[in-house]
Amino acid sequence: MTTLHFRVHARPAWRRWLLTRETAVIAALAAVLLYANAAVSNFDSPLTLYYLFLDVTPLLLIALPLTMVIVTGEIDLSVASVVGLSSVLVGVLYAHAGMPMWAAALTAVAVGAVCGSLNGYLVAYVGLPSLAVTIGTLALYRGIAIGLLGTEAVTDFPDSWTDFAKMRIVEGGSLPMVLIPFAVLAAAAVWLLHWSPFGRGVYDIGLNREAAHFSGVNVERTKLLLFVLTGAVSALAGVYFTLRYGSARGDNAYGLELQVIAAVLLGGVSIFGGRGALHGPIAGVLLIGAVASAMRLEGQTVNAINIVIGVLLVASVVATPVLNRVAAERAARKQK
């Protein structure tokens, strides 16, 4: 690990900042936007960009804590089910139980944190694989959501709340108001991961769990906190999802985990842990959102969009070992 550290910092600063996977994703996003503006009609209109940001906001929110989970070498596949469960809870507590809207939203977020704590406890303290655990809780949380409402949908929400979820920062502009709380959460996540001792412990766990433990990092508590944070933020995304579409259903956000995991891995976060920066997944979310928006404007079906997202996910997973192997072969040739 020390050898890698000195090898990386032996390069000029401009290469360390510019020749990275995160920069490559940002460049790909810029290229897609330029191509879409030129080839797709109405893509650059304020209305199209406004709906693009509304659509990707749940992905942006969930990508913040999920990035930190994956950096530790774990994964959480239950995020979309937590979104669906929190959506159902908001509808049931407000429409059926008569709870005030703000209380229903806070309760849903608290339940999301409890869901994350169950995932974190089973992974961190029981020692079960996160892939197996979160596949199970994916089905569990989705089943609870569908069991609470069945095929029913709750649509009677206060106009003040649904209008706020779709409000623009500037009247007639392309930026929705919801980007402001996202920016606040993103700034907090950047500080937590990149500038705090807690964040250094997250990277240490991903690089070598045993070394992190002996260096003083509380591995179990760190993983538990990250899963709790992921559950709470996923539930917050579920509250927004409900107000954005004005509907609480058990199948809300079905398949969303594919998109957010694809965006995080596409943004340069290693599926094996120990590597990644938050600006990469944010660019990855915007890239997937721009591609999906352009394809919809061109009349492509949802299945075609899912195929493209699946290809991006496979490519992002394969890219890490391939690039590592190329770098190792280059280093071996230099030594010879």
TrEMBL record:
<keyword id="KW-0997">Cell inner membrane</keyword>
<keyword id="KW-1003">Cell membrane</keyword>
<keyword id="KW-1133">Transmembrane helix</keyword>
<feature type="transmembrane region" description="Helical">
    <location>
        <begin position="224"/>
        <end position="241"/>
    </location>
</feature>
<feature type="transmembrane region" description="Helical">
    <location>
        <begin position="303"/>
        <end position="327"/>
    </location>
</feature>
<keyword id="KW-0472">Membrane</keyword>
<feature type="transmembrane region" description="Helical">
    <location>
        <begin position="48"/>
        <end position="70"/>
    </location>
</feature>
<keyword id="KW-0813">Transport</keyword>
<dbReference type="Pfam" id="PF02653">
    <property type="entry name" value="BPD_transp_2"/>
</dbReference>
<feature type="transmembrane region" description="Helical">
    <location>
        <begin position="101"/>
        <end position="124"/>
    </location>
</feature>
<dbReference type="GO" id="GO:0022857">
    <property type="term" value="F:transmembrane transporter activity"/>
</dbReference>
<dbReference type="GO" id="GO:0005886">
    <property type="term" value="C:plasma membrane"/>
</dbReference>
<feature type="transmembrane region" description="Helical">
    <location>
        <begin position="131"/>
        <end position="154"/>
    </location>
</feature>
<feature type="transmembrane region" description="Helical">
    <location>
        <begin position="77"/>
        <end position="95"/>
    </location>
</feature>
<keyword id="KW-0812">Transmembrane</keyword>
<feature type="transmembrane region" description="Helical">
    <location>
        <begin position="280"/>
        <end position="297"/>
    </location>
</feature>
<feature type="transmembrane region" description="Helical">
    <location>
        <begin position="174"/>
        <end position="193"/>
    </location>
</feature>
<protein>
    <recommendedName>
        <fullName>Autoinducer 2 import system permease protein LsrD</fullName>
    </recommendedName>
</protein>
<dbReference type="InterPro" id="IPR001851">
    <property type="entry name" value="ABC_transp_permease"/>
</dbReference>
<feature type="transmembrane region" description="Helical">
    <location>
        <begin position="253"/>
        <end position="273"/>
    </location>
</feature>
